[in-house]
């Protein structure tokens, strides 16, 4: 009960804070700016599907439009939102002396960390789900689609997948906050992980693979009266396999695979990425709990 009381107070303070309101406002504006692309005409909007395939094609069109409008923004911004909400979850309380004050009361360490987790996860869901749900709803309206059951299921599933992705980065940020005990160091570590995963490693992986496989190999293909030079298919297969293995070390890769399957394909066929994100979140939160409970707070 004490953990729930701490969570209630923490959640109220968090959602009323200027930091939370600013993060949610910026995230919402960035998502809404992507919706401008939804109104751009395309060949797909001129097609008239038959009655028997309307629901399937509507869902496919919706998935493609959502991916084009906010897919990249979600991949780039959700980690930042999660890191910003979690970097001072524990270190902020240590620095302000809140932990020491609470421990002077009949409150145990596990109550503090559990309450902080619950409050943080709840505020994270509110901060990510509400702007995303608003953007998805507006996307449906701008597309002029009457949502079918398949459309609704697609959007709800996508919200769930994004929430799991946000949770993974939030859990990592809380771990940094717990281990370092310093908000500045925790924020820097979270941002560095995001930059490395999103920008540095994708470019670095290309250089690593070139060193392993050597320069690209080319082959000539006869196409009518033209001879086209393209990269050797076996080389590209090895290149893609190695790149996927390297990028699979990041959270972004697993989310991107799930997002592509859900929005660009017939649905999620391989749940490996989702399992990885959930397992990583649980393991990281447990590690944070263990470190905080055993560490002496001065």
Characterize the structure shown.
The chain has helices spanning 2-15, 18-34, 54-86, 91-95, 98-103, 109-143, 149-180, 183-213, 233-247, 251-264, 272-294, and strands at residues 218-223, 226-231. Strand 1 (218-223) and strand 2 form a beta hairpin. The radius of gyration is 23 Å and the shape is globular. It has 298 residues and is mainly alpha-helical. Strands 1-2 form a two-stranded antiparallel sheet. Helix 1 (2-15) crosses helix 6 (109-143) and helix 3 packs antiparallel against helix 10. It has eleven helices and two strands.
Task: Give the rounded overall mean pLDDT.
Answer: 83
The topology string of helices and strands comes to HHHHHHHHEEHHH
Can you tell me the overall shape?
globular
Low-confidence parts, pLDDT < 50 over ≥5 residues? 43-56
- Say how many strands there are: 2
**So how many helices?**
11
Oligomeric description of these chains: single chain
The chain-level structural class is: mainly alpha
Whole-Å distance between the termini? 26 Å
Give a short account of the largest sheet: 2 strands, antiparallel
Radius of gyration: 23 Å
Order of strands in the sheet with most strands: 1-2
Strand-residue proportion: under 5%
State the helicity in percent bands. Answer: over 70%
């Amino acid at each position: 009960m004490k953990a729930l009381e701490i969570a209630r107070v923490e959640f109220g303070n968090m959602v009323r804070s200027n930091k939370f309101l600013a993060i949610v406002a910026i995230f919402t504006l960035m998502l809404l700016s992507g919706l401008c692309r939804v109104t751009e005409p395309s060949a797909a909007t001129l097609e008239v599907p038959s009655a028997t395939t309307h629901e399937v094609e509507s869902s496919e069109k919706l998935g493609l439009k959502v991916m084009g409008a906010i897919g990249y923004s979600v991949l780039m911004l959700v980690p930042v939102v999660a890191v910003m909400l979690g970097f001072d979850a524990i270190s902020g309380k240590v620095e302000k002396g809140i932990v020491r004050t609470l421990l002077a009361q009949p409150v145990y360490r596990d109550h503090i960390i559990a309450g902080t987790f619950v409050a943080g996860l709840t505020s994270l869901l509110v901060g990510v789900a509400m702007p995303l749900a608003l953007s998805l709803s507006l996307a449906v309206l701008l597309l002029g689609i009457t949502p079918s059951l398949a459309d609704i299921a697609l959007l709800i599933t996508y919200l769930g997948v994004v929430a799991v992705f946000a949770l993974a980065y939030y859990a990592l940020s809380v771990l940094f906050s717990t281990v370092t005990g310093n908000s500045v160091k925790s924020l820097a570590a979270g941002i560095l992980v995001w930059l490395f995963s999103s920008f540095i490693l994708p470019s670095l992986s290309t250089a690593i693979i070139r060193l392993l496989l050597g320069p690209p190999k080319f082959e000539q293909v006869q196409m009518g009266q033209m001879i086209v030079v393209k990269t050797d298919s076996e080389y590209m297969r090895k290149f893609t396999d190695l790149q996927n293995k390297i990028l699979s070390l990041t959270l972004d890769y697993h989310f991107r695979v799930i997002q592509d399957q859900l929005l660009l394909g017939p649905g999620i066929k391989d749940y490996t990425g989702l399992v990885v994100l959930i397992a990583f979140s649980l393991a990281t939160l447990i590690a944070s709990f263990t470190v905080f409970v055993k560490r002496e707070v001065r």
